[in-house]
Give the backbone structure.
Amino acid sequence: QVQLVESGGGLVQAGDSLRLSCAASGRDFDRYALGWFRQAAGKEREFVASIARSGGHTYYADSAKGRFTVSRDNAKDTVTLQMNSLKPEDTAVYYCAASQRGIVAATTFDYWGQGTQVTVSS
């Protein structure tokens, strides 16, 4: 099992940057693919970005490509999401998740953090 705790959310203006972090505790961090998902009010949870166990492959939603960067540090058991050029439509609760079964589909992620709120004002 792995426990995940996100941090770094907040209120920013459109065009600003924000860096989310997710700290993991438990065993075998490097055996999990890690992902970031978000859920805006009244909407379904959606995939944002993910990174393979070794960090060699990353995946992004179209909405995140070119603006967001996911990275991980297996020595520190952390995964980060650097978000640049933020837009009001990026406003959501952002969740960190871990999976041994997949890398994009939310249904394949077994462990989830509690979420961190990101609000982008126009």
Summary: The mean pLDDT is 95.
